[in-house]
């Protein structure tokens, strides 16, 4: 596809194709199972089976960080496509159906044989905090050969999730996708995903930032500290803000800050009657922000969109919006 032609899609994302298994639990169960409370831990299939057996009654919902963000964007009326790897199994069929039913194009061929489609076992304590245990499954074998390069070049924004940077094969695929998007004159958005990913691959991320590869960087407060080595939030912002065109840093109940081309904007967290489940809060914040950014809206309004989307998703179980998000935006903006 020739560079700089009009994009067909607003956002194309590459990410983990997983199904979330979400259950409410006690604090005691978190301790009993020796889980990393409030964090995300990569596990193998045997541990996934063990935790599944120990879970209280659960709900199964298609997830994956970048896929969740696309689901939010699609409900906001943007044109989206997803690249990710599922296995040729029942969970893979569920994931593909859910993506397409949301209006997202998803045509990456399924992978034959083992391992199974990935899943995330999420334990939600009474305070709404989620503890995630991720078996990446087929997703960690996404090869560069599975990329539809013409598709990648047809998106205005290529959105990448840090979680998928950890396995070697999809990391190579994402590097190639960045090259394709760059050659087509597209923007690269990157979400750091989790501090442990930065701890393992921070040199890669810092090199991409220094080389001007990332146009929009999403981090939360903890990830920013891990990335920069600065415990002070303002010092962390200052360390990165001048190196990426758009930096978005979320701070949970303290709201969020964005710095773009020297302009700074802040937003308070939207009020929520009761926090039910924080799964997907960062993913939906990114969806809201990008929905405004793609339309060229002011920085403060992009942040406001993000806060609205995050507040909607933490008020119910699951990582994807359930409300009419376009109506919610019209009401609150």
Helix content class: 25-40%
SSE ordering: EEHEHEHEHEEEHEHEHEHHEEEHHH
Low-confidence stretches: none
CATH architecture: 3-Layer(aba) Sandwich
GO molecular function, one term: kinase activity
Keywords: Kinase, Transferase
Family: Belongs to the carbohydrate kinase PfkB family.
InterPro entries: Carb_kinase_PfkB-like (IPR052700), Carboh/pur_kinase_PfkB_CS (IPR002173), PfkB_dom (IPR011611), Ribokinase-like (IPR029056)
List the helices and strands and how they pair.
Elements: E1 9-14, E2 18-24, H1 27-32, E3 40-42, H2 45-54, E4 59-63, H3 65-75, E5 80-83, H4 90-101, E6 105-106, E7 117-124, E8 130-137, H5 149-153, E9 155-161, H6 168-183, E10 187-191, H7 195-210, E11 216-220, H8 221-228, H9 233-241, E12 246-250, E13 256-260, E14 263-267, H10 281-293, H11 299-313, H12 325-332
Parallel strand pairs: 1-5, 1-9, 2-7, 3-8, 5-6, 9-10, 10-11, 11-12
Antiparallel strand pairs: 2-4, 7-8, 12-13, 13-14
Notes on the protein architecture:
This protein has 333 residues and is of the alpha/beta class. It has a single domain (9-16, 65-113, 142-332), classed as Ribokinase (UDP-N-acetylmuramoyl-L-alanine:D-glutamate ligase). The chain has helices at residues 27-32, 45-54, 65-75, 90-101, 149-153, 168-183, 195-210, 221-228, 233-241, 281-293, 299-313, 325-332, and strands at residues 9-14, 18-24, 40-42, 59-63, 80-83, 105-106, 117-124, 130-137, 155-161, 187-191, 216-220, 246-250, 256-260, 263-267. The protein has a nine-stranded mixed sheet with strand order 6-5-1-9-10-11-12-13-14, sandwiched between helices. A hairpin with a 2-residue loop joins strand 13 (256-260) and strand 14 (263-267). Helix 3 (65-75) crosses helix 10 (281-293), helix 8 crosses helix 9 (233-241) and helix 10 (281-293) runs antiparallel to helix 11 (299-313). The chain is globular. It starts with 8 loop residues before the first strand and ends with a helix.
